[in-house]
Amino acid sequence: MTPDAASHPAALPSTDADWWRQAAVYQIYPRSFADANGDGIGDLAGITSRVPYLAALGIDAVWLSPFYPSALADGGYDVDDYRDVDPRIGTLEEFDAMTAALHAAGIKVIVDVVPNHSSDRHVWFQEALASPRGSAARNRYIFRDGKGDNGELPPNNWVSLFGGPAWDRITEPDGTPGQWYLHLFASEQPDFNWSNEEVREDFRTTLRFWSDRGVDGYRIDVAHALTKNLDPAFDALLDVRQGHEHLFVDGQHPIWDRDEVHEIYADWRRIFDEYDPPRIAVAEAWVPAHRRARYASPEGLGQAFNFDLLMADYDAAEFRRIIVDNLAFADASGSSTTWVFSNHDVVRHATRYALPDDSAASAGGIMSGGKDGKQWLREGGDPAALDIPRGLRRAKAATLLMLALPGSAYLYQGEELGLQEAGQIPAADRQDPAFLRTQGEEVGRDGCRVPLPWTPEGPSFGFGPGGAHLPQPAWFSTYAVSVQEADAGSTLAFYRQALALRHELQTAEELTWLDSGRADVLRFERPGGWTVVSNFGTEPVDLPAGEVLLSSSPLVDGRLPGETTAWLRA
Ligand code: NOJ
Ligand code: CA
């Protein structure tokens, strides 16, 4: 069932500088994708071994979450060395082999850049700890003296995004209690000082390092956080979590989305444009829609994530508003937009849509404080109350709608299997700092990071010859790749069909809304006669004339059932 990798139809020729504008990008969380050597941790050789699978899926690019050396205090987003591979995951030579294999299959490679913070094991942070107050080494991070008679109190009471204080106190080289450093995330993730030219220069080196190795693009982690105004006047800001935007003029918040962050991205753009084709970048910036344009501008990173569908209820009017707004925002910025339902930070959308109907609980949430299935499960939500068939039905309908939209589509590993969140992980096995730093009050993100099932049996369901670094539930067997490859009606077969058809039908970045005659049904057309009907309701609806190319659930008497999307050709 796995076609020859070389036969993968690339969306656009590899020399096309616009390849990213309507790409289908598949996110790999390397530790949980495929484990070649059986140590329970996914690795680069595992990814290389699965290139035929990725080619058969029909994606245009992969985005790899961090694979750099790391103590994994935050799943690899705590980077020890930006220009190397974690020895548990592979080597630089294996990275090159993986990139070559992906390129040979017509698949681009996007890697994660984590510029807001390093890990506390980074050589610069270790040097800062060993150096005195006020030294050049300390000035690469954000150190401050504490308050109180002996500096025993943190500089202010900011709370980190993962809970607990955003400042930690160090011990000075002479053994006395010392200064405090800022970490917006875990203690092991000290924030860089982006006013320091040395920091800027080092990231230029990193971008050239990977670009020279043939990497096609970058996903920029918390792109809206790098530049800060740490004037003590802002110390009363209680915590640094989003939600204070209304207190500040746009671009003037002390931490988030400051205007001057774009100087950094203009600088990076010059580096990206040194390459042919230019390297691309996509900003992870949790900013209001009207603030995305500068991240997405061709003079900046070029594209920015839009998480609006991920956060939305399954509702026709809400989807339509989000689509209209984001197409307009992208157009105004000269970019194309990005669509995403699932990633390594949120509850899988097949599970979000399976949550009991009552609540905002079914909306997606960000990693901290968001109202989503994580909190619902933590608060004792009974997994037996999940309506799994409905969750999958809606997830497939939403995905088929997304794949028909102008712009690029981001898919998260396992969603092509219709995989559900592995929500019931024992506390002792959990890894997410959001769980550990809140003593379990936040359940965290481990449930979407459980290693993938490739076969219905075996010690880790075919993830590798050994175990898995997070426990896999028994029901994973029914979702295994090999099971679905043998079933023409599987979710995997559906994704493959949808992605293959998307390549065939992909066209100018335009969309025309058509009257569906019903408030709970969306209908639109793309140039070339590609018509899309999405029924968010429960009552079947008649389809317009045309050849039905694909539907997310089987038609009933020629009509489109509820919670189903269909593609037609006029
Ligand atoms: C956003 C990443 O997606 C998330 O996984 C990580 O924990 C934070 N940034 C901190 O790097
Ligand atoms: Ca391994």
Keywords:
about 575 residues, alpha/beta, five-stranded antiparallel β-sheet, 15 strands, disordered N terminus, binds 1-deoxynojirimycin, binds calcium ion
Summarize the structure.
Helix content is 24%, strand content 12%.
Q: Biggest sheet: strands side by side, in what order?
A: 8-7-3-2-1-10-9
Radius of gyration: 23 Å
Estimate what percentage of residues fall within beta strands.
Answer: 5-15%
* Number of β-strand runs: 15
Q: Helicity, in percent? A: 10-25%
What coarse outline follows from CA principal-axis ratios? Answer: globular
Low-confidence stretches: 1-15, 359-371
Mean pLDDT: 92
Number of helices: 15
The secondary structure category is: alpha/beta
Biggest pleated-sheet summary: 7 strands, parallel
The string of secondary-structure elements, in order, is EHHEHEHEEEHEHEHHHEHHHEHHHEEEEE
List ligands, each type once: 1-deoxynojirimycin, calcium ion
Ends: how far apart? 30 Å
Describe the structure.
With 570 residues, the chain is α/β, with parallel strands linked by helices. The protein has helices spanning 44-49, 51-57, 92-104, 123-130, 197-212, 261-272, 293-296, 308-311, 316-333, 349-352, 373-378, 388-403, 433-436, 481-485, 491-505, and strands spanning 24-28, 61-64, 108-113, 143-144, 167-171, 177-182, 217-220, 280-283, 338-340, 408-412, 512-513, 521-526, 530-535, 547-551, 564-569. A seven-stranded parallel β-sheet has the order 8-7-3-2-1-10-9. α5 (197-212) packs parallel to α6. The two termini are 30 Å apart. 52% of the residues are buried. Mean pLDDT is 92; it is low at 1-15 and 359-371. The site of 1-deoxynojirimycin has 10 residues, from loops.
